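## Example pair
The file below holds two records. Each record gives the amino-acid sequence first, followed by its structure token line.
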Amino acid sequence: MNILITGANGQMGQTLLKIGKNQASSFNFIGLSKQELDITNKKALVKYISLDKPDIFVNLAAYTNVEKAECETKQAFLVNKTGIGYIAEICKTASIPLIHLSTDYIFNNPTVICAFKEDDLTNPINIYGKSKLEGEELVRSIYDEVIILRSSWIISNKKTNNFFTRICQITSKQDELRVVHDQHGAPTTAESVANVIINFINAIANGFYAWGTYHYCDRPAATWYDLAQTIVDRINIVNKRQIKVTAITTDELQSNVKRPFCSLLNCEKIKNTLGIEQAFWKPLVEQYLL
């Protein structure tokens, strides 16, 4: 079976291609970068699918820069809504199952730490979250044979812009950093998400029909400060440093973009449906620094 992956140059694309080729050799993974296949170019999508129809389409392409999205609204919606809409139309026409990666940022409980289920009320508070939610809604209105996989705080040691690499870059230049401690979610490694996607690919290949929306994140719940402290603790041990992490509030950060107080995901559905257990993120993150 041929598995087409868009957004192949991102941290999720790189990770899925690596794990897929090593652990799921019965599938032929085809990774395409934005330069090779731009999901906002409908004609290019139609042409590619007509010439080389995949058996499963995995969309990892997305506009993910939360800060820039506030001033690049049109581009965020073009990629996160219009582009995935094109993909859904083409997959429906060609009867290709679609797996689409979405985000916890479609949720926000402003006062209580809780875990959101798939059908809970959404409440995005920034452009990134709003564009991803509208993309989800558009996909569902077009096509039924879709898996929408929501995940959270995805990190990796790939050379991409993610929280882990930013902390490593900052600590290479300074011995103190300030990180918010009042935003609650769950760090999730790209490796964990890739394994979940491969589980879905295997299930679809074997006649899976429980289409719909699923949540997956690693455990336990944490704040960005907790994650930063875990990374720094390991850096201090490995490199014999004494870097200090100071906890601050979101208000002290003085960011121009709103972020959820709580966007933690409940993962019971994916466990009950596919038997997928949540991995523990701390040992996985520490392995990045071995």
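Second record, same layout:
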Amino acid sequence: MKALMTAALLINGLAVAGPAAAATTMKVWTQSVANKVQPTTAPTAKASIALEGGRRSVEAYQIVVHASGGALTGVNMTASDLSDGQGHTIHRTAISFFREAFIDFTGVKVTGGNKPVPASSPTHDGRIPDPLIPFFDPYASTAKHVGAPFSVDAGLNQPVWMDVAIPANAVAGVYQGKVTVTAAGQPSVETPVSLTVWNLTLPDMRTVTTHFKMSEDIFINFHRGIYQCSGNSCWLSSSPKARTLVKRYEEMAHQHRIDTAASFVPDRGTDCSPPTASYWSSYDARLAPYMNGSYWSDKVPTGR
């Protein structure tokens, strides 16, 4: 009987419609870098960015894209120049974006720690944002897209980390600008940005003693073709590829005023005899570029 009624309706030009599908909409919200945003974190109403810092500092915030009703594709972000309204401008090239990738810790059990995932997640989500994928390859000679455009699955978040590098010559004051978020088939969303530049300049040289060690095991575990092995023992090689890779990590930390332990400095091995003069000559030659700044792109000596 139901089939006959449906057929009759169709013959008379009437369509039998099912439940209406929810329209896909893009919600953009913001979060400080003090909080990790998971795919299932409940969006908030905050939709603006307020930063402050001294010259030569790097300030950061998070912009989160939420896909409501359906998946989003072709998501991207662009920044405007920041202006203080007095003729002073911080160019948009001082602003960088990084897509936050997720690591799923569901089922992972390790010794130590006091914040298990997903047990401590408000939504019992095991996915935690950690790797930062730059929108553009910073090492390519021409613009090469890496972290964007990206997609967001229905009902989930995709956080984006935003860095603002305050130039050394920036005039103190309050600067205003915006970040425009776009997606395929969606109206663009503008996020207001306010940056207060303090009337002070951070020194180039690091003045606080630190100890950050970059483990060679980490490089070996995640990168191919940079190590040598003998039996079950492997170590970081001194090949051009290995040196280039390590230097990229070192430079990234150095830009944020963190100087790690120097790599590729000759090791004395297990010999307990006093070092020879030739050893110290080689040691000095390898360490000197770190100490005089010639190793670094900004020429600022290691402060560690």
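Notes on the second record: The chain is about 15% helix and 30% strand. Helices lie at 2-11, 216-222, 240-255, 277-292.
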